[in-house]
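The authors assume throughout that readers already know how a fold can be written as discrete tokens. What matters is that the chain and its backbone geometry are given together, residue for residue. A single example would do more here than another paragraph of explanation. For illustration, here is how one protein appears when written out as sequence plus structure tokens.
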Amino acid sequence: MKSGMNGAVAAHGQQVLAIVLGFGQGARLFPLTAERAKAALPFIGQYRLIDLALSQCLNAGLRRIYVLTQFNSLSLNRHVMRTYRFGRFSESAEFVEIIAAEQTPESQQWYRSPTDAIRRAWRHFELWPARHILILPGDYVGWIALQEVLAFHVGMEADLTLVVVAADETVARTRGVVKIAGARGDSPQPSDWRILWYQEEPREDALRDLRLLSDGAPYLVATGIYLFRRDVLAALLEQATGPFDFGLELLPLAVARYRVYAYWHRGYWEDVSTISAYYDAHMRMLDVEPPLSIYDPNAPLYTRPRYLPPAKIHESEIVDSLIADGSLVRGARVQRSILGLRSRVERGAHLDGVIAFGAEFFPSPEEERRDRALGLPPVGIGEGALIRRAILDRNVRIGARARIVNEAGLQHADGPNYHIREGIVIVPKNAVILEGQVI
């Protein structure tokens, strides 16, 4: 790269407009996405998935950010508006602003793809004279130093930079795969990172030609993070004819006509598009050395301040777990589990491999008396309950001595107050598991 890059990156950072795509439905994450967008899903107890993308933008000095929303957008819009508000005396050019899908004289439809969303929202982006446009999903788990991506992009004089990660064949079949010029040695040349070919969800015969390395992750796949020169993106949107996803039309067209490079992210990145991927990403955060650090003072993970009391643990055994603010655990055993905001676990309960989203409120004494009169268990996890390998959505009521263990070993099932996906039991929002019930 060219000399003086640090200064160049700082200067170019002021010319970047970031666009976070938060309108994904996340159908494979049902029932967790029955009432919320995928980007609004909780992450390790007190964050949301979109906090990762927005925090990375802010930590890279990118402070002009649009969030595009559409599906089940209420909770996502509310979270973004309440969390990412700069002070009234900050520069007017600094913002995190939501652009919801809207009807216009030109189009009466919902967003049909990222390409369609960017094209239809372009009139809003024209308000800012950004030289570069960063597009990133709001629903992945990982941490990417976006300032380094910008340095790479500027240094290569790229028209488009794709952030890629190494992946095995199973992942490569489901994502866009790139073929680059070289980058096999320890000190690759800049020209090695030029993308020669891009293929979305390649077939087996095409995968053989895209293999880069000889280890268990021999392919470079796109993460959905793209850094465009603004004029190039505008030209591509004019040249692309359909409402297709980026990978089906826009990116192959860019590779054929422009200078497109791959930035190889060697750190952690995970596409959490399925229940098992979402669950496993959380379980990895409970390791002694998790793949994603949330304790780095130089790269804070932001979320909405809630001013809750600290978690209270009384006569309990807690092993390798995360417990969010406002929680109360009394006489229970919690092992490799994550308890979200305002979680309540009563005496004798045993949790193993559980993700509990917590509750949206503290019940008042009057509400608790009303629930008892109606025969409802309190919000939270009752006495003597046994729960293994499960996800409990917000405000669930687990009765005393209930057993949520997937006793039949099912991979897929639906019940009146539960679902099983990939062997993981999911209790949906506001559901009630009665005293002694077995799942």
Remarks:
- The two ends are 58 Å apart (CA to CA).
- Residues 114-125 form the longest helix (12 residues).
- The longest strand covers residues 219-229.
